[in-house]
Amino acid sequence: MDTCDLFSSCRKGDVGRVRYLLEQRDVEVNVRDKWDSTPLYYACLCGHEELVLYLLANGARCEANTFDGERCLYGAQSDAIRRALREYKQVTSCRRRDHYYSFLLRLLEQGIHSDVVFMVHGRSFRAHRCILGARSAYFANMLDTKWKGKSVVVLRHPLINPVAFGALLQYLYTGCLDVSVEHVSDCERLAKQCQLWDLLGDLEAKCELCVQPQAQGRGQELAGLPRALKLCSALRSGLQARYVREGADHRAPAGRLTAAGGPGPAGGLCPAH
Q1: Looking at residues 122-146, what average pLDDT do you find?
Q2: Which of 79, 109, 223, 254 is most buried as measured by Cβ atoms within 10 A of its Cβ?
């Protein structure tokens, strides 16, 4: 019922209702209907720019040269929506793609036969112990010790970003990760904490591609770069990210860590219970 409500709200452009369904009812943002269409596709098709931007910011997939991405571009009702789709920055890390990819992604997104739920700042993620334990020594150890016998694990550490945690689960299930540039540092921090060195290396390599050559030198002014590129550049140089928003100079929030150094979340992912 919630899924049908989501598709209907996207066709109507009801941002408030969509926000409620995604954030309060935990409806999957990339769910598909019987026509293999996603909420983002309907928002584009019906010309709801504000809703398109909200869905993109909350994990809707629209990568170029993919079925979903090209379909959204083709169906978009305005140039503004097409620009938003083209300009939306994604960092993609993929270690492998095989015939199990779609099956495992569906298993994660639909939570079929899940036996553990992670609660991260109000968002729930259904998962499977056998997959997490097989893919990560860190998760295997935690599931056998601190999380043993728990069907719900609550993670309240302020440095654990729900979007990054969801992306991390996607990587563990499929070997692929899609995340907006602004969440790369959060993903790197989690990858390091969970000892996923392949993922950490991939993210660092992808970030290098985001940085314009003239802005790569340490200490070079970043104010002229787009916000996404400046954040990415700061990850590599160890500088504090600077960007201009509405004519004012802002600095990255205190405590935001970069790949260049800084402490990780104390005590691992710090389950509350």
Answers
A1: 94
A2: 109
